[in-house]
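Colleagues,

For the teaching module next term, I've prepared a clean inverse folding example: a structure given as tokens, and then the sequence designed for it. I'd like students to try predicting residues themselves before seeing the answer, so please don't circulate the second half yet.
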């Protein structure tokens, strides 16, 4: 039951993140992209930039500080590397972003969260 609730909140968070990105001029290329090495919540494009976005929703804003760790970022980076050729052309820029969400709070967009 708890896992199902978390799944519902996660999907709502991803929708909120998608709407947030669209309002900032991004196009959404894919949602919940699964790869053999991990899942990417959103793939978005703005101009010549493709962002692979990890979305984290927490019931309390205080918990957002620990929502994303190195392990999760590595998995998103590995997944992005596996499928980047499907979304970006040569000469375009790629990055890993994070969007943190909590009730009653504006989304917090962490740009270029993964820098190996």
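(Answer key — instructors only)
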């Amino acid at each position: 039951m708890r896992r199902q609730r978390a799944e519902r909140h996660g999907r709502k968070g991803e929708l909120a993140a998608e709407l947030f990105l669209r309002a900032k001029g991004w196009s959404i290329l894919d949602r919940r992209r699964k790869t053999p090495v991990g899942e990417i919540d959103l793939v978005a494009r703005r101009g010549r930039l493709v962002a692979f976005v990890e979305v984290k929703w927490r019931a309390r804003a205080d918990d957002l500080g620990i929502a994303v760790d190195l392990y999760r970022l590595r998995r998103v980076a590995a997944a992005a590397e596996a499928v980047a050729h499907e979304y970006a052309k040569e000469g375009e820029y790629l990055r890993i972003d994070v969007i943190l969400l909590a009730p009653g709070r504006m989304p917090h967009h962490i740009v270029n969260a993964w820098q190996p």
